[in-house]
Each structure stands twice: as C-alpha cells, then as structure tokens.
Amino acid sequence: MPRIYTRTGDRGETGLFGGGRVPKSHARVEAYGAVDELNSVIGWAIVVQEDDDIRRKLVSIQPDLFTLGAHLATPPAPDRRRRPALPELGKDRVAELERWIDEADAELPELRAFILPGGVQAGAALHFARTVCRRAERRVVALAAQEPVEDDVVVYLNRLSDLLFMLARLANHRAGASETRWEPRA
Q: How far apart are CA 119 and CA 168, in angstroms?
C-alpha cells in the first residue's frame, strides 16, 4: 500500500488526472474540491438520516459526485492527445433527480414563503448540503468561464441543489418538524 503522503504538493501545486500540475488555488482544483466537500457533507447527511428512502437516494448520489470530480480533475487533453478514460455519469441521472424532486413535491405542502434552514438534524444537514452544492455549482461555472467543462456537470449540480432542498423539506415533514417562515424584521 503506498503512503498517503507523497510530498509532491508541498510547494502549493497538485497533479491533475491525465497529467499536468497546477497551483492548488487553480479554478479546476477549486471546482473539484467543492464537489468533494459536497460529497463529504452528503456523507454526514446520510449518517444522521433516519428516513430509509431519503438515505437510499443520498447513497446513490455519492458515486455520481466522484464521477463529476473525476471529470473536473481532468483537463482537456493538450495537442490532440487522448484524454484518460473517465466514468460516465449516465444520461438518465438528471431525469432521476427530477423524478425524485417531483415525488417530494407531491408529498409536501405547498411552499408559500421563504423558509429558514433547520428542522430536525437530518433536515438541517440536507439544508447545509444544499448550500455546499450551490457553492460547488458556482465554482464549476467559474471554471467553465475559463476552460471547457461538460454541460451535464453544471446541470447535474443545479438539479441536485434543488433535490437537496426538497429532501430537507421532506425529512422535516416526515419527522413532524414544522418549517419556519422567514419574517423580515420591520
């Protein structure tokens, strides 16, 4: 088993999949790092999740995020060289997220106001995951402004943040926790 430390990043650079080195502050590293952070937060949301249906959905999302991270960690191949083989996300994954959003929407009371993140621990963890997902989406969009990024990466993250919002509401609803409406101070 190789050592966990390589010392190759001690000067503030990191290697990309498929070759090349960039500063650890590079937009590509920020993008796949934010997706990695999202995956960790979803892992925490799984641990505190008591609803088996929601937990199953979250567990199925984690491999997708590793796939997105692999794509983001792999820059376009220079000089017409081949890019390393990467796992595919699957064309039906965004449609499945949309189906889950619609299922949750059908079960939940209509949303008539902005709500504050919170509720039970599982709901609050999902609200937190939603905000981390939005940050990951912003980092990927920033990278896409500089370098090519597959369209389905942004679409997946955008839909995932919507799903995480709905799952947060659903976890709270199924646990009997009421939603706190945002009331602006007078």
A: 9
Let me know the angle formed at the C-alpha of 170 by 124 and 64, rounded to the nearest 5 degrees: 80
Q: Which tens digit of pLDDT belongs to each residue from 22-52?
A: 555 578 889 989 999 999 999 999 999 999 9
Question: Is a pLDDT exceeding 70 seen at residue 78?
Answer: no
Are the C-beta atoms of residues 132 and 38 closer than 8 Å to each other?
yes
Task: Tell me the C-alpha distance between 134 and 158, whole Å.
Answer: 7
Q: Are 126 and 163 in contact (CB under 8 A)?
A: no
In the chain, the domains with their CATH numbers are: 17-76+89-174 (1.20.1200.10)
Degrees (nearest 5) of the Cα angle 66, 29, 155? 55
Degrees, nearest 5: CA angle 37-38-39: 90
Name the CA dihedral angle for 108, 112, 116, 117, rounded to a multiple of 10 degrees. Answer: 30
